[in-house]
Design goal:
Blueprint (H helix, E strand, L loop, with lengths): L2 H12 L3 E6 L3 E12 L9 E7 L2 E6 L1 H8 L6 E12 L1
Antiparallel strand pairs: 1-2, 2-5, 3-4
């Protein structure tokens, strides 16, 4: 895919959450921003998080545990924002 088509595809997918400007003949500068809600997956999805405890030891937690804690009122979904920039050449 050409660089220009990649930029057009990204802009189509992310609408106003991405800004890309041309810098010279073959360079671009992009800024992405995400505003969303972090909600936890239920046990049925089957995702796990591995938490390293010590060399050779990992605590494997089902991600559904966080979802369960939201259903019983111990934890809550939360809003988050992330943004980043990238300079790239084609």
């Amino acid at each position: 895919m050409s660089t220009e088509r990649a930029v057009a595809a990204a802009n189509t997918c992310l609408n106003d959450r991405i800004s890309t400007v041309r810098e010279g003949a073959k360079a671009f500068f992009s800024t992405w921003k995400v505003d969303s809600i972090y909600d936890f997956e239920p046990f049925s999805v089957g995702y796990f998080t591995n938490i390293p405890l010590a060399e050779g030891y990992v605590l494997k937690l089902p991600d559904g545990l966080s979802h369960h804690l939201t259903t019983i009122g111990v934890a809550s979904d939360f809003s988050y924002t992330a943004s980043w920039t990238e300079r790239w050449t084609g």
